[in-house]
């Protein structure tokens, strides 16, 4: 089984933003040592508990501190930007780190309404125009605008020997069909979806049209996982993430991922308990054997080529150890 890492660069309550970013670097280095296929970093805006607002900047630093693991954005939020600028940024990265660069493309705002307005004009219109933005980006990546096009003589330099690989990331049928239409690999965010992802991925595979990037469908499924030596330990470690996720959804959680002590001191309402229960139902939590069994089951159900793991803990050591245990079991 191929395993990869999705990171959101979380900041714990006892950390600074810089420490959160440096832990992202440490995770990519550990993933490389453990045998993970790729490391993707997410893009978020105006969310104090998450450190990465600019994946392309952080990826340049991580690329310089790793040697072989594939790197990418998970996702670059395309409606905020012009495709030409995205192509330039990732061509630069692909030139510096040849054969290692992915561009995960998403359409979500990635933050507050205020942040969305500050980043881009007419965001909703650009979301609607996402297929055209993807098509334009693909032309810039491959430098193949047709004769007579406005951008026919425009190149997104530096032009790398090996192009970055674009992926469509999403949780909807719309994103799956967009990936299928342009012959792109597809990453389904199971960890953030309440939809029947198996049907969505099946439709992607059925509708796939071979293109310049992929001649056959390719699927990653991203899953929330907390792994420890025992189920009890994993359940305990996962509490911080569960409570923080609930707090963030409610407009709190700005202080970062809480410690176990902070979590245990909090009294939950019935509504909050239900929220935590629902979140937990969408995660895989357990010892290495339990987690491996569940991942294999999901991989088979989704017909996935690769499983991408997102793990958030208060302690960076617990996070690294979770990825290590999983690698020892499956890689």
From TrEMBL:
Gene3D superfamilies assigned to the protein according to its UniProt record, in alphabetical order: Luciferase-like domain
SUPFAM superfamilies in the record: Bacterial luciferase-like (SSF51679)
InterPro entries: Bact_Lucif_Oxidored, CmoO-like, Luciferase-like_dom, Luciferase-like_sf
Positions of the Luciferase-like domain: 1-299
Entries under NCBIfam families matching the protein: oxido_grp_1
Family classification: To bacterial alkanal monooxygenase alpha and beta chains.
Protein name listed in UniProt: LLM class flavin-dependent oxidoreductase
Lineage: Bacteria, Bacillati, Bacillota, Bacilli, Bacillales
